[in-house]
Amino acid sequence: MIVEDDRSLSRSIYDYLKMEGHICEVALTFTDATQKVAINKYDCIILDIGLPDGTGLDLIREMKANRLTGGILILSAKSSLDDKLVGLNIGADDYLTKPFHFAELNARINSIYRRNNFLGLNEITFNEIRINTEDNQVYVNEKLLILTKKEYDLLLFFMANRNRIITKESIVEHLWGDNVILTDSFDFVYTHVKNLRKKIVAAEGSNYIKCIYGFGYKFIDI
Ligand code: CA
């Protein structure tokens, strides 16, 4: 989620991150951001400090008080060292000073995601599966898998949530965000899961992805 009241900046960040394959939402006000964090779970929140109806720091305090998780990257003005320090002290993961390069923003977001989900490692290995999160390559038994972007994101999501039941709804939320037309079935999730599983098994990997009838899926440590 991009929390930034400067419309043209939030739009530019949105467009850039979308191009990089992230699913994004924008909140232009403190109120909007507060409502969104209460309902959704974000991998990363890009947080401007100065908002028209509150401060980004208060949003961090509110999230911590309500035990809401999610990475937080502060965007701060050049002069406000205090804001950065306070932000880091109360639980932000990182900060960037305006103006910044979008490529650096993207690198910081990916690093926060790795830190929060994979102990900061660029390479995630799990039995015969090896994922390089720098170049987005996946190997099974050291054989390169050709995955679509959605299959890759799905695999990372499963890896970050091993042995937990993942509902179809949470997969849709994570991989498609708000940009999906909500239907009752989410059958397209099934297709992506099936294809991912097929590719892993074709490379003689184990069948880790189990269907939990009526709920969704579970990536199981065998
Ligand atoms: Ca602002």
Structure description:
It is a single chain. Helix 2 packs parallel to helix 3 (56-65). It is globular, with a radius of gyration of 18 Å. The chain has 222 residues and is an alpha/beta fold. 43% of the residues lie in helices and 22% in strands. The chain has two domains: 2-118, Rossmann fold, CATH 3.40.50; 123-219, Winged helix-like DNA-binding domain superfamily/Winged helix DNA-binding domain (Arc Repressor Mutant, subunit A), CATH 1.10.10. Residues 5-6, 48, 50-51 line the site of calcium ion.
In short:
The chain is of the alpha/beta class.
Topology of helices and strands:
Layout: E1 2-3, H1 7-19, E2 26-27, H2 30-39, E3 44-48, E4 50-51, E5 54-55, H3 56-65, E6 71-76, H4 81-89, E7 94-97, H5 102-118, E8 123-126, E9 129-132, E10 137-140, E11 143-145, H6 149-160, E12 165-167, H7 168-176, H8 187-202, E13 209-212, E14 216-219
Parallel strand pairs: 1-2, 1-3, 3-6, 6-7
Antiparallel strand pairs: 4-5, 8-9, 9-10, 10-11, 12-14, 13-14
Helix pairs in contact: 2-3, 6-8
Bound molecules: calcium ion.
Keyphrases for this structure?
globular, 222 residues, 8 helices, 2 domains, alpha/beta, four-stranded antiparallel beta sheet, Arc Repressor Mutant, subunit A, Rossmann fold, binds calcium ion
